[in-house]
Amino acid sequence: MRQKPVNEVVMTFLSRSANEGFARTAAACFVAQLDPTLDEVNDVKTAVSEAVTNAIVHAYPQTLGKITLRLRLFGDQTVEILVKDNGVGIEDVDRAREPLYTTGNEERSGMGFTIMESFMDRVRVRSTPGKGTTVVLSKQIARRVGLPV
Q: Tell me, what is one Gene Ontology molecular-function annotation carried by this entry (predicted)?
């Protein structure tokens, strides 16, 4: 069983494309508590960007909806990021996780989940058609030498 988080924040915002940058920056600021390297911060920012963009583009294709971002830090230097929507959901999660698969238009690469998986230690996806999708991203940040345990 997972230990209790040492810090946590939850925020909800509308599925406007401008809020992708907000979510990305909020995640970077929050994870800064763990003194990550620039590469680690960029990994988190990129994964959050992909998860939030997926919710904006695919969950609410014809309307605005709410997206919840939950950021949690654990004592083992792990950051866990939950991105949740109550949108259209994903019919076939396994297929959606395949590289180049997209339900979006020709501007979409279909690489969102692949990118998340390449930058995070773990990516979990739960979805119910008509009810929404939850993506949970986890990454352990390396403990810096000389910092207290």
A: protein serine/threonine kinase activity
Please count the other Cβ atoms lying within 10 Å of the Cβ belonging to residue 131. Answer: 11
Q: What is the DSSP string of 22-54?
A: HHHHHHHHHHGGG---HHHHHHHHHHHHHHHHH
Q: Looking at 19, 24, 40, 54, which residue is catalytic?
A: 54
CA–CA separation, 106 vs 56, rounded Å?
Answer: 16
Q: What is the pTM of this model?
A: 0.86
The pLDDT value recorded for residue 115 is 81
- The greatest distance separating any two alpha carbons of the chain, rounded to the nearest whole angstrom, comes to 51
The answer to whether residue 102 scores a pLDDT higher than 60 is: no
Among residues 19, 20, 24, 50, the one annotated as catalytic is: 50
Angstrom distances, CA of residue 46 to CA of 2, 77, 117, 131, 133 = 25, 19, 11, 26, 19
Decide if 54 is catalytic. Answer: yes
Residue 107 clears pLDDT 90, i.e. is over it: no
50 a catalytic residue: yes
